[in-house]
Design a protein that fits this description.
Strand order of the largest sheet: 2-1-3-4-5
Number of helices: 6
Number of strands: 12
Strand content: 15-25%
Number of domains: 2
CATH superfamily of the largest domain: Response regulator
Helix content: 25-40%
Distance between the termini: 42 Å
Order of helices and strands: EHEEEHEHEEEEHEHHEE
Radius of gyration: 27 Å
Mean pLDDT: 87
Shape: elongated
CATH class of the largest domain: Alpha Beta
CATH topology of the largest domain: Rossmann fold
Largest sheet: 5 strands, parallel
Low-confidence stretches: 34-40
Structural class: alpha/beta
Length: 215
């Protein structure tokens, strides 16, 4: 879904410029005046506001970037921040800088992405932070060890064939003759054991592949 920007800019040429260029950047651009948000409309993700005096009329919780008047000074900027703006851009502004400020405000004000936790048996993997715990104890893994464990944990009781794992984790087109998977599986199993894991994990199903948990 596109990020929606409401451009409440009284100066027609500037508003038209921003509408065209921000739409080309991939934003969903909505035009508006400086009278405040409509309670019956869906709130935009961010407002570009051309009049700092209209700040109080915008829905709380919607981030606002003020496009300052050409004659604005430090006192005007302080007042705008005290009224609740999230950023203040002086005129004349540099377009590329404005775009980056929009993206920065959206990053700061967007709700955090919920962590995707993949868990099976004693293994718990937070894919956002790449934090791995086994029986509550943190385990440090190399990149391919992490990817191998993640693939096995997503389907803990299914035997993933060597071809599957080599394609998924290493990007191999065909398995051929390689000990890469076996050597990584061995190191992964050892690290889990050294971390104090009492369960038998990364089970080798002879001639087929691996699964995380014993049958």
């Amino acid at each position: 879904m596109s990020t929606s920007l409401l451009i409440a800019e009284p100066e027609e040429a500037t508003r038209g410029f921003l509408e065209r260029h921000l739409a080309a950047e991939g934003f969903l651009v909505v035009s508006g005046d400086d009278s405040g948000s409509d309670g019956d409309a869906t709130a935009p993700d961010l407002v570009l506001l051309g009049d700092a005096d209209a700040l109080e009329r915008w829905t709380p919780g919607v981030p606002v970037i003020v496009l300052g008047a050409p004659e604005a000074d430090a006192i005007d900027r302080v007042r705008a921040f005290r009224r609740g703006c999230d950023d203040y851009v002086d005129r004349p502004f540099h377009y590329e800088e404005l775009v980056e400020r929009i993206r920065a405000v959206l990053r700061r004000t967007s709700p955090p992405t919920p962590a995707e936790v993949v868990a099976a048996g004693p293994v718990r993997i937070d894919t956002r932070t790449r934090c791995i715990t086994v029986e509550g104890r943190a385990v440090a893994l190399a990149q391919k060890e992490y990817e191998l464990l993640l693939a096995l944990t997503r389907e803990p009781e299914r035997v993933l064939t060597k071809d599957e794992l080599l394609k998924t984790v290493w990007g191999y087109r065909s398995a051929g003759r390689t000990r890469t998977l076996d050597s990584h599986a061995s190191r992964l199993r050892r690290k889990l054991r050294e971390a104090g894991c009492s369960a038998r994990l990364v089970v080798n199903v002879w001639g087929v592949g691996y699964r995380l948990l014993e049958a």
